[in-house]
Write the structure tokens for this entry.
Amino acid sequence: MNQPSPLRLGRRTLITTSLVLAAPPIIRARGETPVRIGMVDPLTGILSALAASEVEGAKYAVAEVNKKNGILGRQVELLVEDSANDVGTGVQKTRKLIERDKVDVIFGDVNSGIAYAMSQVTSELKVFHIVPGGHTDPITGTDCKWNVFRICNTTSMDAAAVTADLVKRFGKKFFFITPDYAYGHTLQDSFIRNLKALGGTYQAELLPINTSDFSATLIKAKAYRPNVLLNNMGGLAQVNCMKQFTQFGMQKEMALGGALFELETIKAVPKDAQTGTWTMEWWWNQPNVPEVVSFVANFRKATGKTPSARHWFGYVAVHSVRLGAEKAKSLEGPKLAMAMEGLELPPDVALQPGKVFYRAGDHELMPNIFVGDVHPPKDNPDNVFTVTALVPGEKAAGPVSDTGCKMVHPA
């Protein structure tokens, strides 16, 4: 995507904030050993714009935390590695951060398949792991792990929140364009399950995650004449698909919709493709929530950008470590994981109405899901989404027993 990134400093970026010289001697002594957070995300490749936002949100939170005495009285360092959207590379970088750089905590990855592979390593090495933005269900479902917590929704949550609205407004005939990897598989399966329950029909096309030419698939969709085309691709692939969709004039023939059409992506497509009914996993325009108004103003002042859901993921990840460590009085993986179970985010971190907490049974964050309509900008370049409903996370997620998670803590 044509989006500048603050991360083009090399394969790894070290983000830190200096200690305040006037701090008491005991704080300086503890601060000599910083809290080190390792973050693995695809800084290159088709998901790089989303990854850059997650890292920027985490960076912003680190600076905020360090101004207030860090975590457990120690300053925080954020070490960022590029997974290059490759599972093997992501695993290699995770081991490097843990074994050589001695990080206390791991974040990552945007790519669900990489996030899952990373969790195998972090669980084995007993390191606390937050998945900010990898959505595939098994991470907090059938393959859940005692040390892994997730901020973004499961694919089942997003599909459950929006399917009925799409059917009610546009009809029951769907065509799916879906990436052929972990995220796409579980997202499409979730949509199909919800659609069938409502008596709907569908056709689907699975494509490589880095597809750039969608013409053959769009011709199939056009021939099928669906009520709704669900573009489940992500990042630059979704942008390319949307551009070709409008070039074919298909926006005049069918509705658009689905799970994620993120701020970074919406701003990168033609105005004709800024349409449809989607979910946002966090949204910046909440004028009736004072903590959000303050956060958005401060973030814009610091970065020159309006925060997206991906920025919020990174921001919440850092503050979750702070809150969990304060409760556990430790950064040891098993102690931190136990402290995080059931942890409720305070309003200045949750940044939305209601109770937002990590569910004990599967370690999935339970936020609101923002369902609404995408449209061309109304009064500023970032006002491209109007919320029509807030769906509670627990309602969309269903009970823990339905996820397949059987949580087992180490002895």
